[in-house]
Specification:
The protein has helices at 2-13, 28-40, 71-74, 92-98, 102-111, 118-123, 135-138, 160-165, and strands at residues 18-22, 56-60, 76-80, 87-91, 125-127, 143-144. The protein has 179 residues and is of the alpha/beta class.
Length: 179
């Protein structure tokens, strides 16, 4: 009976926190890796594989994720209806146009451990295609998870002073002609 009261104390002490992650210009795999740690509760000192101590994760800007290379056309998501001839394949671009949150949701789902807690952990994942968050969720947010990859600046975001101060790799001679 003593272990039951200690478990109750742990539940009261380590309440579920809410984390925010911005997915703009981030690869889905890196987003999922950072998210799964929080959903499982592996960042907590009381973590145990059999205990359900994970936190809520809110991911915004899932519409603006980034794949490297030609993965938008080459990566294929497959499913089967269970009926003969029910095998369906959709490219990442087609799936993203249909549902902008689906790629991140599938990536996180597949990265979670394959046990009975997976559905419970997925209920604590909140996905939004843009940076608009409902007020009731926004008031619960405690901390922001840093983006896994630095977002590069576009050329039109640099000032003319920054462009002029950028080191030149090659200075053309005076008689150089561009074709």
């Amino acid at each position: 009976m003593a272990s039951y009261t200690k478990a109750a104390q742990q539940w009261a002490t380590f309440a579920r926190a809410w984390y925010l992650l911005d997915a703009k210009m981030q690869p889905p795999g890196k987003i999922a890796a950072a998210t799964v740690i929080r959903l499982e509760g592996r960042h907590k000192p009381i973590y145990h594989a059999l205990s359900d101590c994970g936190d809520h994760v809110v991911i915004i800007n899932t519409r603006h994720i980034a794949f490297s290379g030609n993965k938008w056309e080459q990566k294929v998501y497959s499913s089967h209806t269970g009926y003969p001839g029910g095998f369906k394949q959709v490219t990442a671009a087609q799936l993203h146009l249909k549902d902008p949150t689906a790629i991140v949701k599938l990536t996180v789902y597949r990265m979670l451990p394959k046990n009975l807690q997976r559905r419970t952990m997925m209920q604590r994942l909140h996905l939004f295609p843009e940076d608009v968050i409902p007020e009731d969720i926004q008031k619960n947010l405690l901390q922001e998870i840093p983006q896994p990859r630095a977002v590069p600046k576009r050329l039109d975001e640099y000032t003319s002073e920054e462009i002029a101060a950028f080191p030149k790799v090659w200075t053309p001679p005076k008689d150089f002609r561009r074709k």
